[in-house]
Amino acid sequence: MYVDFLKKFLKPKRPLRIVFDCSNGTAGTVLSKIKSASRRIKLQIINAKPDGNFPAHGPNPMLKGAMGDLKKAVLKNKADLGVILDADGDRVFFVDNLGREINPDAVAVLISKNFSGPVVLDVRSGYLIREALATDKKTVLDSRVGHYFIKRLMSEKKADFGAETSGHYYFKFGEAYWDSGIFGAIHLINALPDDVAAWIDQLPKYFQSGEINFSVKNKTAALQKIKSIYIKEAKKTSELDGLKMEFGNWWFNLRPSNTENLLRLNIEARGKDILDKHLRQITENLVK
Questions:
Q1: Which backbone phi and psi does 113 adopt, to 5 degrees?
Q2: What pLDDT is stored for residue 260 in this prediction?
Q3: Distance (Å, rounded) from C-alpha 235 to C-alpha 251?
Q4: Same-domain check for residues 265 and 252
Q5: Strands 207-208 and 176-179
Q6: What is the pLDDT of residues 34-79, one digit of tens each?
Q7: How far is CA 230 from CA 216, 217, 282, 286, in A?
Q8: Which of 11, 107, 126, 174 reaches 20 to 30 Å from 183, CA-CA?
Q9: Other C-beta atoms within 10 Å of 178: how many?
């Protein structure tokens, strides 16, 4: 039933070669039954057999080296796109036809074109997706990080699509809201440009730190310290999820872990030198 449901949405614009890496998780069972869903897609599946020992590369695609098999398979098979799912199939990441990792913000830009109305983003989402949505005259709704908060806001605001930088993509079905790696991949396949790498190369270039964890004795005190340093300079400040401060050519979000004495930092800037400068400054103030 689930496979038949997914097949209805698969509508590629052109013939495609696509490689899926299932990370020895649950998605392989489903994808093996979708292979014949469209004559326009030649689908190769690797690491498809479910195995709780995760012999290929572990269950988390975000870990260093986890996309190695996928990148090699994309280049070897001259594929248009590579797709990797985590072990339980709710997160998905992509590589382009040159075997390069695609920023989740860029993925969200393409998927958002399949939907009208407002789009829910987590506070870590960057310039690329926000500016693309502004160009498309779509409203951005900021959410705290986490599926509970994303889904709740989508329900409140009647949004059909939501995205997190962690590889979660959220969709509305009737009165339900859920994230699905396979469904996210289908929507990207449907919106795929003729040359993925060329499309990526023409996008504006921004520079991101990725999420960096800092161990602190007192999360509240550390957040207040950083806020006091930057408050006069900031053009916009939000405490929706930790502390987010925007400065025109860079921004940061610093949010507390719910379970540990950790603060999680994300920075994005319009120049590498700007990123390096402010990452160094914030790091120095957090580790003192």
A1: -70, -15
A2: 85
A3: 10
A4: yes
A5: unpaired
A6: 877 678 899 999 999 999 999 999 999 999 999 999 999 999 999 9
A7: 19, 21, 10, 13
A8: 126
A9: 12
Contacts 24+ apart (CB under 8 A), 169-174: 169/92, 169/107, 169/108, 169/111, 170/120
Q: What is the mean pLDDT of residues 131-143?
A: 97
Binned at pLDDT 50, 70 and 90, residue 231 comes out as: very high
> Which residue's structure tokens are 């999680």?
264
Taking the C-alpha atoms of residue 43 and residue 21, their distance in angstroms, rounded to an integer, is: 11
Q: How many domains does the chain have?
A: 3
Count how many residues are written for the chain.
288
Helices (H), the chain: 2-7, 27-31, 68-76, 104-112, 127-135, 147-157, 181-191, 196-201, 219-230, 272-287
CB burial readout 235-264, b (16+ within 10 A) else e: eeeeeebbbbbeeeebbbbbbbeeeeeebb
Q: Tell me the average pLDDT of the chain.
A: 95
Cβ atoms of residues 120 and 161 within 8 Å: yes
Residue 200 lies in a domain: no
For residue 232 the two structure tokens come to 């006069």
Residue at which a domain ends, from 86, 101, 116: 101
From CA 251, how far away is CA 232, in angstroms rounded? 14
Boundaries of domain holding 228: 207-287
Separation between Cα atoms, residue 41 and residue 58, nearest integer Å? 27
Question: Structure tokens of 155?
Answer: 């329900």
pLDDT tens per residue, range 180-217: 999 999 999 999 999 999 999 999 999 999 999 999 99
Q: Token digits for 34?
A: 């979708």
* Tokens linked to 51: 């195995």
